[in-house]
Request: fold
Amino acid sequence: MTVFPTHEARCMKIRDTWPRWLLAVALLATASLASADTLGKIKSRGTVKCAVNGEVPGLSMKAADDSWSGMDVDFCRALAAAVLGDADKVEFISTTAAKRFEALSAGRADVLARNTSWTQARELTEDIRFVGVLYYDGQGFMVPRASGKRSTLELADAKICAIADTTNIDNAKRYFTRNRMPMEIIPFDDLPAATNAYLEGRCNTLSADQSQLYAARTIFPQPNEHRILPEIISREPLSPAVREADAKWFELVRWTLFTLINAEVFGIDASNVAGARERASSDEVRTLLGYDSAINARLGLKEGWGARIIAAVGNYGEMFERNLGAASGLDINRGLNSLWDHGGLLYAPPPR
Reply:
């Protein structure tokens, strides 16, 4: 005969198990909050850990003297200026394309700023959030000038060196299939490996984001012997990313980017930000420079964080010119990366 527990026995069992459920839930919640407190960890540690490429001039490059430069590098320095008051308090972590998301999700980096394209699949499957477009890029192709080729539509039967674990390979496959051109893709772990193979003649075409092609060409033995073809075959909105679970850190990183863009909109740069801070009378400018106490409290930042960003790295336009424009030697036209009222796509929500 089956004996069913009495109502009193059932209640006692519930009372016995309930505290353990509460404890488990509390432990899970505590662990989740601890893992999400990126800002607190940065303040305690005293550095921002930033995952970058390290081998792409103009975006992120480590020189022989261990100094760093590039758009991605400057963005990380802007974060350090905002949070820690010192743009030099950044630990740069070189990562490969294959390992970049794991470096972020495993907590080895606080932010990923590694010329990474913002895609739906990545944001929804990698447990990350892209903060906004730092650079509008697109995939292109490079060939030896001696080939005489001037268009991607002349690349039938091409052997193409490309970087594995990027959007470039799938983009190229779709483009060549659509245009009914046979080709062969040879994947490599990173841009230097793909570039070396191209220079050695193992392929007759190099494909990557156009910014990377310009960067690679500058360090070729004979740069003028190589042509970057004019067509762009994809949209590659390059964006920094953070872990999905930390909404507060996401807001801070996103508004660091928007501050760089809005500073250019307002005509505030590294040379005049000190004066702008003294003269700031409008709520909009004061908010941009980090003098709105309610917003500062929300972000967990000390007063003047926006001014510190601009003083450290300048506004977006200054960053572009220094790293990618004529002053950099790459001489990349701003194009889509111009402000929206100058014919580009660069746009940020206003401070007020």
Remarks:
- Confidence is low (pLDDT under 50) at residues 6-34.
- The longest strand covers residues 139-144.
